[in-house]
Please model this.
Amino acid sequence: MEIVDDSFFTGNMFNSMQVIIKRFIDVLFSLLLLVLLMPVIFLTAILILLESPGNPIFTQKRVGKNGRLFTIYKIRTLYKHHFGEIQEQEEPHAYRITPIGKYLRRSKLDELPQLLNILLGDMSFIGPRPYTQFDFDEDLRFNRVLMKPGLTGLAQISGNNYLGKSNIAWMDMWYIKNYSLLIDVKILFFTFPAIVKGEHKLSDPFNLHSKLPVKNFSGSI
Model:
């Protein structure tokens, strides 16, 4: 598995003090939020069980820093019988996603268990999107594993899946190359409006849309 040469990156991502501060923030706030939001996670899990039998926590292998596999945790939003049987593109969301699941996905509450991933060191609050194994094998040319994947990130606040894979990959690489704690703060600031407005309402806080490799993405700026 070929990892991009570190010398490609001229930014500050390898500044040891920034790495230490970033990890300190991740540990402190993931632990605090887990304690505060555990009742919300527990209540949501109960509602999922009442609506659809099966484990309310969805787990999946993802590709983390340096290509290391880890188990990501989410609140389940699909009917149990759809796991591993029907590809996402083969059946409309309305038939696969539970009624509560639609709200959880829209509000991003289904991602709350990833606070545990952050605490364990598999993820960070902010970083590139976490690869599935399929996407990683398919898009090795867009190697984004020099940093931990994030709960939120540049692609998530800039249109996410409406951008398409190539543009998402480009944004992840831009983030890695230009990384700073200040950029993290700005991404965090724009995350909450992105959740409220929805992914189809594209934002461009870093003025990057004009530089994207693929111009015919969905949505409007």
Observations:
- Confidence is low (pLDDT under 50) at residues 1-11, 84-92.
- The longest helix spans residues 16-51.
- The first strand starts at residue 57 and ends at 63.
- The helical segments are 16-51, 93-96, 99-107, 114-120, 133-138, 154-157, 165-177, 181-197.
